[in-house]
Amino acid sequence: MNLETPDLGRSRQTDAALTTEYEDYDDTSGSYDNTRVPIGVPIVLDFLASTPTTLSEQTVLDAGCGTGSCLAELRGRIGTLHGRELNTGMQQVAKKRFADDPSVQIEQGSITELPFADETFDGIICNQVLHHLDSGKIDDGGTVDFPNVNKFFREAFRVLRPNGVLVINTSSHQQHRDGFWWAALIPEVIDRMVPRFPSIDRFEKIFQQTGFVGFETGVPVDEVLQGEQYLRPEGPLSAAWRAGDSSWSLATEEELAQAVNTVTAKLEDGSMAAFLKEREQLRAKIGQTTFVVARKP
Ligand SMILES: C[S@@+](CC[C@H](N)C(=O)[O-])C[C@H]1O[C@@H](n2cnc3c(N)ncnc32)[C@H](O)[C@@H]1O
Question: Which domains occur in the chain, in start order?
Fold first, then answer.
């Protein structure tokens, strides 16, 4: 990393039909696994184990599976796995990963339309995907609207078997502000990102409205989405590192340059360690992510 030439490379939009609105996962797919790790696997397995079918006989869908890193953690423990992924680049990485494994099927397409028969799955997992579905705009009635998230929930309900579970990993609004150290560098960006995430209370309502029962939450407080890369003080100066958190792709050129200047100054004047320590004290209390889970009756 050369501190004098920070990489201001931005994510670009390419094929609008097969990429998400604000992050170009075709660009990111090649390096995604360097800056993101699956978290909360024991929590996911506990929720899946709460259904009547033993894990080794279950059929489970990973909705928005990305490069398939979560599926790789479940492989060998769950009978049959399916991954559905919209983006071409991410889907290709996942498909290659499981090319020789007939127990894992990867398909390309949107999770708002699930081409599966009713009552196919014992469980559906969905990790850090739903903020890509809706912009969180205020509708005519004055409430934040999540039409595509609702569509996904209806589809998930349809393809789950009775007693099947929907296990979603998201971040609460407070986790957004205090669970990622760099959020303090780009507060206006986080303000724009947060409305894309239904609050935890809103998730509970969406579950209920769709017909799910037994709402529960779980927080993997000690795990971070970026794994060993998380506390790299010079991380924000690298486009590949920033690609590990889609908030950065909502930053304007000006906001990005400001964040890069702040990091560079903190590295030069020696104040970065204290800044990280202060930010980490907040994250240690609340974690980065929350699982929201409920069951089809
Ligand atoms: C932050 S990544 C998470 C990937 C993976 N679940 C993980 O935990 O590593 C978000 C993923 O959601 C995918 N995605 C966004 N909108 C989607 C949609 N409508 N249908 C399927 N996948 C979608 C993106 O292409 C991207 O791979």
Answer: 25-179+194-231+286-295 (3.40.50.150)
**CA 174 to CA 179: how far, in whole Å?**
7
The rounded distance, in Å, linking the Cα atoms of 200 and 91 is: 28
* CA–CA separation, 175 and 197 (whole Å): 11
pLDDT at 30: 86
Ligand 1 center–CA 223 separation, angstroms: 20
Per-residue pLDDT reduced to its tens digit, 84-113: 999 999 999 999 999 999 999 999 999 999
CB 77 within 8 A of CB 55: yes
Q: How far is the CA of 173 from the centre of ligand 1 (A)?
A: 19
Q: Three-state secondary structure along 201-248?
A: HHHHHHHHHHCCEEEEEECCCCCCCCHHHCCCCCHHHCHHHHCCCHHH
Phi, then psi, of 31 in degrees rounded to 5: -115, 0
The list of the chain residues with pLDDT below 50 reads 1-4, 9-19
Q: Please give the single-letter amino acid code of residue 166.
A: L
Among protein residues, the one with the nearest Cα to ligand 1's atom 1 is 128
Taking CB atoms and a 6 Å cutoff, what residues make up the pocket around ligand 1? Answer: 20, 25, 36, 64-66, 69-70, 84-87, 90, 110-112, 127-129, 132-133, 246
CA of 127 to the centre of ligand 1 (A): 8
Written as six digits, the tokens of 61 are: 């869908």
Using CA positions, which residue lies closest to atom 10 of ligand 1?
129
Q: Which atom of ligand 1 is nearest to the CA of 62?
A: 6
Overall pTM surpassing 0.85 (yes/no): yes
